[in-house]
Design brief:
- This protein has one helix spanning 2-92.
- The protein is mostly helical.
- The radius of gyration is 40 Å and the shape is rod-shaped.
């Protein structure tokens, strides 16, 4: 009977040590995963910010190009209007 009890206690002690070791390894792994997740979130945040900046820069550049085009068109229309006005006066007079 004592041999069976000693065997059971020995197996229980080994199982307990194994459970403690597995628990600590799991806790360590969970901590590493938490750090990795935080690192990935920071990376995603930085990339998102960079993409938003690039989009804003492209929008600004496009707006400047459109303003330039409108300015050129306005200038050409003013010149055309001046020519038409001058031609009407020549025809009237």
């Amino acid at each position: 009977m004592t041999e069976i009890l000693a065997f059971i206690l020995g197996v229980s002690a080994v199982a307990f040590v194994w459970v403690v070791v597995v628990t600590f390894k799991t806790a360590k792994l969970a901590k590493q995963n938490k750090e990795r997740i935080r690192s990935i979130e920071e990376w995603i945040s930085r990339n998102d910010e960079m993409i938003n900046r690039r989009i804003d820069q492209e929008i600004e550049r496009t707006n400047q190009e459109v303003d330039t085009i409108y300015s050129v068109i306005d200038s050409r229309l003013d010149k055309l209007e001046a020519k038409i006005t001058n031609n009407k006066q020549v025809l009237k007079g």
